[in-house]
């Protein structure tokens, strides 16, 4: 599942870094070094991103509940990626 191919769609990896996509898993570089793996789960009214560091020591799930109105996908992706990176890098 961790063998990935390069991707260039959302979620966008940190600037200047390439991410990858495998068998249902997306590999995204961390700003503190290393990578994390996640699998998206979206539906009408919900946006969920479970993620785990490559070494398995840290994990986080971000879930956003929305209305049926369209959301600003770019803003939500950026906010969720920043929160995930913060949690997995262990910054206080």
Helix content: 10-25%
Structural class: alpha+beta
Q: Tell me the span between the first and last alpha carbons.
A: 31 Å
Indicate the radius of gyration in whole angstroms.
13 Å
Could you give the count of β-strands? 7
> Main β-sheet, in a few words?
7 strands, antiparallel
Oligomer: single chain
Fold and architecture overview:
Helix content is 18%, strand content 35%. With 92 residues, it is an alpha+beta fold. The protein has one domain. The longest helix has 17 residues, at 73-89. The mean pLDDT is 79.
What does this entry show, briefly?
This protein is an alpha+beta fold and 92 residues long. It has one helix at 73-89; strands at 5-7, 19-21, 26-29, 35-38, 41-43, 46-53, 59-65.
Set out the fold topology:
Blueprint: E1 5-7, E2 19-21, E3 26-29, E4 35-38, E5 41-43, E6 46-53, E7 59-65, H1 73-89
Antiparallel strand pairs: 1-2, 2-3, 3-4, 4-6, 5-6, 6-7
List key phrases describing it:
single chain; 92 residues; alpha+beta
